[in-house]
């Protein structure tokens, strides 16, 4: 977020003949806004993204993946204010201190907005993340991502939701895109779209904050008095995505709008080309022999993980 010039007035208030002072400046949109109009701008931008990518409508039942962080809580708040039927889903990963703190914040928020929060405990399903981390050679975040996707999908179906919404923001998406491009990881690039449609037992997954920066979502949370977990998960240390985020933020500082252009031009220009290939080479989806969930192999990765953890105990 750029620096605000002393005495700047809100662009929207000014157009209406009012005199409210701006409290935020969005250089890549060339907008200076007061608190009220920033909150309005944020929610309109989320709504526009939902419509642009045909993510869902007011008839859908949405399950928001809540981590206790600013993005997922900001998303849940915005969807509720926009009139969508959105409930929360929290996976207790069993990470000492971090999971306890984030769970309490998620619970308090659900009480504040009076929407249900479904909680699943990884300790009861498989084992806490620190134990999974010890039992496997994979990095903790990779196993964590797998189990989160699996349980979100499984419980959303069981609980009768047809949409899963996650709080990935523009910084997240641009950093992942940067990493995937750096490695020319075509399989991941093919899936990097803000909507993954429902098929073969997978529920539709959407990212309504994909055009909102991390700073914008932090500010929206702050203006709405949303309490969120302010420290990172201990396992995030050293993740390359953090380095990519820093690099892109340095570029953004010099050339406002870089992240948005990088991401949206990928969606407009590159993604359609990759999709054509995808249609031709579609992999066959089976059902896991153990749990019955969709899988590319006979036994899904979560059932394999369960086995591995069991044998380590
Ligand atoms: Fe899971 Fe890694 Fe995120 Fe921690 S940082 S919540 S281990 S994905
Ligand atoms: Zn204003
Ligand atoms: Zn399985």
What does this structure look like?
The structure is a single chain. With 313 residues, this protein is an alpha/beta fold. It has 2 domains: 1-33, no CATH class; 35-312, 3-Layer(aba) Sandwich (Rossmann fold), CATH 3.40.50.620. It has 13 helices and 10 strands. It has helices at residues 11-15, 35-52, 70-81, 98-113, 122-125, 129-135, 140-159, 170-182, 186-189, 214-223, 240-254, 258-280, 301-312, and strands spanning 24-26, 31-33, 61-65, 85-92, 117-121, 163-165, 195-196, 204-206, 286-287, 294-295. The strands form 3 sheets. A 6-stranded mixed sheet has the order 5-4-3-6-8-7, sandwiched between helices. Helix 2 (35-52) crosses helix 10 (214-223) and helix 8 (170-182) crosses helix 12. The relative contact order is 0.13. Iron/sulfur cluster binds at residues 93, 129, 140-141, 144-145, 233, 235-236.
In brief:
By secondary structure, the chain is of the alpha/beta class. It is built from 13 helices and 10 strands.
Q: How are the secondary structure elements laid out?
A:
Blueprint: H1 11-15, E1 24-26, E2 31-33, H2 35-52, E3 61-65, H3 70-81, E4 85-92, H4 98-113, E5 117-121, H5 122-125, H6 129-135, H7 140-159, E6 163-165, H8 170-182, H9 186-189, E7 195-196, E8 204-206, H10 214-223, H11 240-254, H12 258-280, E9 286-287, E10 294-295, H13 301-312
Helix pairs in contact: 2-3, 2-10, 3-10, 8-11, 8-12
Bound molecules: iron/sulfur cluster (SF4) and zinc ion (2 copies).
């Amino acid at each position: 977020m750029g620096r605000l010039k002393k005495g700047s007035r809100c662009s929207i208030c000014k157009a209406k003949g009012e005199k409210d002072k701006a409290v935020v400046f969005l250089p890549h949109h060339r907008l200076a806004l007061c608190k009220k109009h920033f909150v309005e701008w944020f929610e309109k931008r989320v709504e526009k993204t939902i419509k642009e990518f045909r993510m869902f409508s007011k008839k859908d039942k949405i399950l928001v993946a809540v981590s206790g962080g600013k993005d997922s809580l900001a998303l849940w708040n915005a969807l509720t204010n926009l009139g969508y039927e959105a409930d929360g889903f929290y996976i207790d990963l069993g990470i000492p201190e971090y999971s306890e703190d984030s769970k309490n914040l998620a619970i308090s928020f659900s009480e504040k907005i009076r929407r249900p929060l479904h909680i699943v405990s990884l300790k009861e399903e498989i084992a806490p993340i620190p134990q999974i981390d010890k039992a496997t050679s994979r990095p903790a975040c990779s196993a964590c991502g797998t189990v989160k996707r699996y349980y979100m999908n499984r419980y959303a179906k069981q609980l009768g939701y047809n949409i899963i919404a996650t709080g990935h923001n523009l910084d997240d998406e641009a950093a992942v895109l940067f990493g995937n491009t750096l490695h020319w990881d075509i399989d991941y690039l093919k899936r990097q779209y803000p909507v993954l449609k429902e098929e073969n037992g997978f529920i539709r997954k959407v990212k309504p904050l994909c055009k909102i920066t991390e700073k914008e979502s932090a500010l929206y949370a702050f203006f709405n008095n949303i309490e969120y977990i302010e420290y990172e998960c201990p396992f995030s240390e050293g993740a390359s995505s953090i380095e990519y985020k820093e690099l892109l933020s340095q570029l953004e500082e010099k050339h406002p709008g870089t992240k948005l252009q990088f991401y949206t031009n990928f969606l407009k220009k590159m993604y359609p080309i990759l999709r054509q290939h995808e249609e031709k080479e579609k992999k066959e989806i089976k059902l896991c022999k153990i749990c019955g969930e969709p899988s590319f192999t006979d036994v899904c990765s979560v059932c394999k993980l369960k086995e591995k953890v069991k044998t380590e105990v």
